[in-house]
Write the structure tokens for this entry.
Amino acid sequence: MSSMLLLPLLLRLASGLVPGASPSFDSTAVLDHGEPAPQDHWGSCDPLPGLPERPWASLLAEDDQAFIFAAHRRLHPELYGATSAPSPGSRLPGEFEPASTLLLSFVPYPEYFDAYGQIIEHASHHGQVQVLHHPEHRAELDELIDARAAREEAIDLVDGVPFESPWIRDYGPTTVVTGDEQSFIDSAYFVNCPDADALPSRVAGRGRGTTVHRHGLFLEGGNLLSNGGGLCLTATTVARANGLTRQETAELLRTYYGCARTEFLLPMVGDVVDHVDMFAAFADHDVVLVGQYRPDQDPTNAIVLDVNAAILAATEAPGGGPLRIVRVPMPDHAEALEAGESPVPRSYLNLTPFNGVVLVPVYETDRIVESEALAVIMQAFPDREVVPVIADSPALDGGAVHCLTSTLPRAGG
């Protein structure tokens, strides 16, 4: 039986095509509204441990799965449909600015528990921490928090908002501010991650009253950095992945995020996510940290990061004045988990500033330049506590502290 003939039967058997989907999601609607989706927008979004699997996923080719996911989005414009842009004059705050809340999405991967515990503990002493989780994982989350010296009154455990991935930075809400008002920008996320893709709208709908703006661009949060004053950084791959020119991409970022100027940087090469937060971070409006490899570590990415540093050194921040470029040594790559795979690049710059603390990923398997990197970061954030967070396991999956967290700015700055 072909997959398309099998599709209506599968839809009748499944009581919801995706976790959290509307019960009215029927086969006729799917066949009317579905359309194939680009396969380069397919991510690692398997059901989390202890949660039901999609009963039809193993029976369908990716093209037909994409058809189903596309239909789901068309049937729920309140979660996925494009909207108008924010009011003119909106801006994307820098992550070094005052924040109200740190968001995490908890997944029960034991190898991540040390990183989660350290992040929650230290962030809780500098602001509110909201941990999104599935009810099935509450006991493990409670045990993790109980083992830390966290400020429990600052921790809010939130269930009922489904997601498929720990990388909330990439699919969570990006907040822009217009005067004293805040609104969420919701980018498109991986085709096969419909719950993560809908998370900003669902979070906004839980008593926040926050307006959500959606532009439809595939733009993970880790691929957009802001200096808070109209200068934004993203990777050259964003334009290509969306079939746009850089000029068109920059115009969209200006319209939705207030990016008066966008600099397109080269992504690192190899078995590494093509996000700018893997090698760069703003420490202030005019200070940007950029990773640096020795040629004997990684000759190709040494050149890539030197080129990016040169691009930024020639960049004038909106309002005038040059950027100060601070180079941070990069750790050695991690050995691949399986034979024949490439080593995995890691970074100290996948860090998260949160009010009085800066959470910096470090790696137990590589301490060679750690103290030097932390010293440079401390100088860049002179009035904050710099806290190392063990991130070996998340790094093997392509992320670290910045990828695991998302920050909401403080109202009024």
